[in-house]
Amino acid sequence: MNKRAPEKMRFAALATDVVLCTVLDEKLKVLLMQIDLPPHYKNTWALPGSLIRPNETAIDTAKRLLADKAKIDPKHAYLEQLYTFSRIDRDPRNRVVSVAYLGLIPGSRAAIYERSWPKNMKWCDIEKIPSLAYDHTDMARTAVERLKSKIAYTNIAFGMMPEQFTLTELQELYEAILNKELDKRNFRRKVIDIGLIETVKNKITGVAHRPALLYRFKSKKSQIIDVL
Amino acid sequence: MNKRAPEKMRFAALATDVVLCTVLDEKLKVLLMQIDLPPHYKNTWALPGSLIRPNETAIDTAKRLLADKAKIDPKHAYLEQLYTFSRIDRDPRNRVVSVAYLGLIPGSRAAIYERSWPKNMKWCDIEKIPSLAYDHTDMARTAVERLKSKIAYTNIAFGMMPEQFTLTELQELYEAILNKELDKRNFRRKVIDIGLIETVKNKITGVAHRPALLYRFKSKKSQIIDVL
DNA sequence: GCAAAAGTGTTCAGGGTACACCCATGT
DNA sequence: ACATGGGTGTACCCTGAACACTTTTGC
């Protein structure tokens, strides 16, 4: 068990890259970091990535990336496998096959984590993503497509909400991801009818208007549902 | 470009396995082949698989598998990446990470290809899949889930139909995959309304009943549509 | 003419969409 | 009292689901 494969079987390195998304300031954002690997990439923006280690599965690597590079506790994030990129020249240096992950984190936490980051790391508005290293532009595009698609028929958005939230906040999340406005009354009826959220006794306080009821998810297990 | 990664970066081999599905005799089936690799697997059924070669991407390997192992022209099959399996002990011998593909082929062709196969290769009813080598049981289950799920909202079923077909044949495909009966009138109205198929001038001949109109797909490009 | 599958419309219920006003709080 | 976002109900339309009989061919 777990012997290494014979040398002749191993010609490519294996990596994992994470497209970590959040909604901040009502915009869908992606975590980017700058890499400095001349001659190909000099201070170039890229997704956080790492080689998979011998004792890790791909998702283990994704979790380690969140923890080590962004100081994000993986318990705070949702991760799902996105796609495996195997183009032969995707890394100009060596043959590297990458198992990409889609990650989601609540905007409230994203803002806090950001404060502990160095300059070469940031949340980047998906409308303003610069040209990225490797095939990371493809990865980011694939992730955003997946997210937009899955938000309409699964509860995946739950990975981007804090423990407690108002219905308006939930609606703003959907609007940011889908990039269109939704009807308030229809949205509220729908999410309540689905039955995956419940009210908390508390109301929000300290706002200069009628305080909103707080809700939480009954379960965070991923499910297929018809959200919108 | 395309240099090999340094030795220390390479600890795992990379493979591709294909879950090739078809509908034959109104049953959803998967291509299995027997492998004989003592001591772990002695005449054990498995999915067709191979290591990825240095000059191949993952999908290149999937196409080569179809051609070499099953003598299937990859042009006759639809292939999409399914999931990457990276459990550390998934191969009891060596560390191997596998990029699994979902493949589809029309039943009419599946029946023909089958005749050229040796004894250790067969279409297996998905209800009767034996215990498979490696984590191939997981792969097969994942593929069938994906297929059942995507058939309801994409035109993926098109990959399993011959050039020309009757609406009844198309309906039988859906019924076999979803494992439930559909209403004839509603089904026909729906697929015609969607507008992805058109009639061919010919009718089917030589049947002891009213001959059915033949249809074909206007396009085989994969699309998101609301089929059922 | 009989067997066997092809082909065809209508009704009903439920869900999605569009839309406007009063409520509770902080200042 | 006023500004700000919170919270609520109804009417219409469209889609999905249920359902039975006539038509065309081969034998």
Walkthrough of the structure:
Two copies of one chain form a homodimer. The first copy, chain A, has 228 residues and is of the alpha+beta class. Chain A is built from five helices and nine strands, in the order E-E-E-E-H-E-E-H-E-H-H-H-E-E. Chain A has two domains: 7-147, Nucleoside Triphosphate Pyrophosphohydrolase, CATH 3.90.79; 156-217, Winged helix-like DNA-binding domain superfamily/Winged helix DNA-binding domain (Arc Repressor Mutant, subunit A, Orthogonal Bundle), CATH 1.10.10. In chain A, the strands form two sheets. In chain A, strands 1, 2, 3, 4, 5, 6 and 7 form a seven-stranded mixed sheet that branches. Chain A binds chain B through residues 1-7, 9-14, 51-52, 54-59, 81, 83-84, 86-89, 92-97, 99, 149, 153, 224, and chain B through 1-7, 9-14, 51-52, 54-59, 81, 83-84, 86-89, 92-97, 99, 149, 153, 224. Chain A binds a DNA duplex (27 and 27 nucleotides) through helix 5.
Name its key features.
228 residues; alpha+beta; DNA-binding; Nucleoside Triphosphate Pyrophosphohydrolase; 7-stranded mixed sheet; two-stranded antiparallel ribbon; 2 domains; Arc Repressor Mutant, subunit A
Low-confidence stretches of chain A: none
- Counted by DSSP, the helix tally of chain A is 5
Count structural domains of chain A. 2
- Greatest chain-chain contact: A-B, 38 and 38 residues
Provide the CATH superfamily of the largest domain in chain A: Nucleoside Triphosphate Pyrophosphohydrolase
| N-to-C series of helices and strands of chain A | EEEEHEEHEHHHEE
Largest sheet of chain A: 7 strands, mixed
Structural class of chain A: alpha+beta
Fraction in beta strands of chain A: 25-35%
